[in-house]
Amino acid sequence: MAQKDYDATDLTIELELDDGRQLECDVLVRYPVGDQQYIALCPVDDESMEEIYLYRFAEGADGEPILTLIESDEEYEAAADRFDEILDEIDYEQAEEG
What we know:
Distance between the termini: 16 Å
Largest sheet: 5 strands, antiparallel
Order of helices and strands: EEEEEH
């Protein structure tokens, strides 16, 4: 099987929302688009996965994740399009297995 360019993990990250609330999220996938890494997150209590958050991703010197907002619509669209492709790839692989 070909190596994938994304990395699914079983980690959680706590986000601080604009209103100061903390939101624990599952890490769905970390993936590149060009030279930039992105991360897709879903709130832990959202089993339907209706709410997905996409951020720029980097690792600090201490190994801690650094998440930053995606500023432009074009960059967000590119990150979202690649995330959709990853979901399609996962669905395809699962269909072939089962």
